[in-house]
């Protein structure tokens, strides 16, 4: 059984800004190009699951237009992390002491003071991952880089990340496809 993870395309947001839960739109032409590249490689009888954020939903709908055999549904469990008060701000404008406090208690501290903890993100994505495994059907998640990193950890058997330096640092590009086996 296979889980495909596809990151949304480029967004209409200034570079180096925090936009986890913010519903920033994707740029239209790249979404269509990503869908055209990915759709032919996908098998039949695949569950197409999208984060409810517009940047993911646009790409999922473009995939479904090319592959009407894919039945699309959204799942809030694969939405990006909520960065609280940091949402919409340039990363360089966020006080270093705030980021340091978050990384000191990486599992439990709420990002941006009022956002989501890493433990919360891992539990939420873990519930979606467990449901995919229990469902016994291959799936494609159209999602976000943070969720993809969480899924990589889950596949490796890791359910909690205590330290920031243990979070995957791997860069995940716009429209990148990662394939996981169960």
Describe this structure in words.
Helix content is 34%, strand content 13%. It has a single domain (7-181), classed as 3-Layer(aba) Sandwich (Rossmann fold). The chain has a 5-stranded mixed β-sheet, with helices on both faces. The model has no long low-confidence stretch (mean pLDDT 96). Helix 2 links the parallel strand 2 and strand 3. It is of the alpha/beta class. Helix 1 (28-38) crosses helix 2 and helix 4 (118-135) packs across helix 5. It has helices at residues 28-38, 54-66, 96-104, 118-135, 145-155; strands spanning 2-7, 47-50, 71-74, 139-143, 177-181. It is globular, with a radius of gyration of 16 Å.
Gist of the model:
The chain is α/β, with parallel strands linked by helices. It has helices at 28-38, 54-66, 96-104, 118-135, 145-155, and strands at 2-7, 47-50, 71-74, 139-143, 177-181.
Beta-strand percent range: 5-15%
Largest sheet properties: 5 strands, mixed
Outline: globular
Whole-number average pLDDT?
Answer: 96
Features:
single chain; 182 residues; alpha/beta; Rossmann fold; five-stranded mixed sheet; 5 helices
């Amino acid at each position: 059984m296979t889980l495909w993870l596809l990151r949304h395309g480029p967004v209409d947001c200034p570079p180096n800004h925090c936009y986890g839960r913010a519903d920033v739109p994707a740029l239209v032409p790249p979404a269509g190009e990503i869908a055209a590249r990915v759709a032919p490689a996908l098998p039949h009888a695949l569950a197409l699951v999208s984060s409810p954020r517009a940047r993911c939903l646009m790409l999922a709908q473009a995939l479904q237009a090319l592959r009407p055999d894919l039945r699309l549904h959204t799942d809030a469990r694969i939405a990006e992390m909520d960065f609280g008060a940091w949402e919409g701000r340039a990363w360089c404008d966020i006080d270093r002491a705030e980021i340091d406090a978050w990384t000191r208690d990486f599992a439990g501290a709420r990002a941006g003071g009022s956002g989501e903890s890493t433990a919360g993100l891992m539990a939420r994505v873990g519930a979606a991952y467990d449901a995919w495994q229990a469902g016994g059907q291959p799936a494609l998640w159209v999602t976000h880089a943070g969720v993809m990193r969480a899924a990589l950890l889950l596949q490796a058997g890791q359910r909690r990340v205590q330290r920031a330096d243990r979070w995957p640092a791997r860069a995940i590009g716009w429209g990148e496809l990662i394939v996981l086996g169960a």
